Amino acid sequence: MNDLPRLTSLAHGGGCGCKLAPSVLRELLADQPMAQAFPQLLVGTETSDDAAVWQVDDDTCVIATTDFFMPMVDDPHTFGRIAATNAISDIYAMGGRPIMALAILGMPIDKLAPSQIREILEGGREICHQAGIPVAGGHSIDAPEPIYGLAVVGLCHPSELRRNADARPGDALILTKGLGVGIYSAAIKKGALDEAGVAEMVASATTLNRIGADLAKRGDVHAITDVTGFGILGHGLEIARGAGLRLRLRLAELPLLSRAAELAEAGFVTGASTRNWAAYGAEVELPAGLAPWQRALLTDPQTSGGLLVACAPGAAGQVLDFIRGAGFPLAAVVGHAEQGVAGISVE
């Protein structure tokens, strides 16, 4: 096995840091037709939600999503676990429960051993088993870089669907996982993260966001999105734009992985973080004198990150306790939504 290549050495990027910059994506989708011709399509591309939603009848919505990327870690089994957790998250972020997945696989078969590829698939299958769903099929190609992910289908009741556009003025904002996955990934690539740090990152990135389906049963939870490649600012902006609100985030309250601030200050920042800021910085108000490394925490691409939850302010304490009790100890109230020009202000 020592002669086998490192997975990360075969990819120009890794994890959700591979995403196209938000501005590029918006440009590519700008001329796409709107979905009004399909009244059963409750969620399409209009509000930058996490998945598409089709209403089948009065009691059932089908949620469909796909997500895949290149490796951010060298262990094949771990890569498969992280990629699968990340893909399934979109279903939970819409308030649904997954029912099955299809594998998406692109591998440089002349560079990787079959055993490595099997381990990637097994890691994904393991996470799907934890989520209670089968990998029911998939598609594979010979590709120049290793790519793995899932297409996932889920279900929800129409009343439990949670969209970005449904956040309300006054809502409290709760983030369920610590930020810093991209920063940790940058440190891994440069051999600067110890085993404990890698374990911390992997534990976060392989924790299923199934709490989203439970939160969607609460009437006091109005909107949910998962925080991935665009960072807390980018995905917060998707809620802000969709609902036409101003989000105010409190920098000091944002939960972080234990070494995220230290590593960011030392310069372990991904290229995606810089691209993110260039894409949406005009819509964000930062505190005067904010250090570049602090801004990097706000734009850091999260792979399989947490959920950003908008809930009624009077219920914030109860919702937070519920989230922490479900296995998200870093969850915190990080700000609120208010009337104003759509965008984000950081305090």
Short description:
With 347 residues, the protein is an alpha+beta fold. It has eleven helices and 13 strands. It has helices at 22-29, 76-93, 114-131, 181-189, 195-205, 211-215, 231-243, 260-265, 271-280, 292-299, 316-325; strands spanning 41-43, 52-57, 60-69, 97-107, 135-142, 147-156, 172-175, 221-226, 246-249, 284-285, 307-311, 332-338, 343-346.
List the helices and strands and how they pair.
Blueprint: H1 22-29, E1 41-43, E2 52-57, E3 60-69, H2 76-93, E4 97-107, H3 114-131, E5 135-142, E6 147-156, E7 172-175, H4 181-189, H5 195-205, H6 211-215, E8 221-226, H7 231-243, E9 246-249, H8 260-265, H9 271-280, E10 284-285, H10 292-299, E11 307-311, H11 316-325, E12 332-338, E13 343-346
Parallel strand pairs: 4-5, 9-13, 10-13
Antiparallel strand pairs: 1-2, 2-3, 3-6, 4-6, 7-11, 7-12, 8-11, 9-12
Helix pairs in contact: 2-3, 4-5, 9-10
Overview of the molecule:
By secondary structure, the protein is an alpha+beta fold. 33% of the residues lie in helices and 23% in strands. The protein has helices at 22-29, 76-93, 114-131, 181-189, 195-205, 211-215, 231-243, 260-265, 271-280, 292-299, 316-325; strands at residues 41-43, 52-57, 60-69, 97-107, 135-142, 147-156, 172-175, 221-226, 246-249, 284-285, 307-311, 332-338, 343-346. Strands 8-11-7-12-9-13-10 form a 7-stranded mixed beta sheet. A 6-stranded mixed beta sheet has the order 1-2-3-6-4-5, covered by helices on one side. The protein is globular and about 60 Å long. The model has no long low-confidence stretch (mean pLDDT 92).
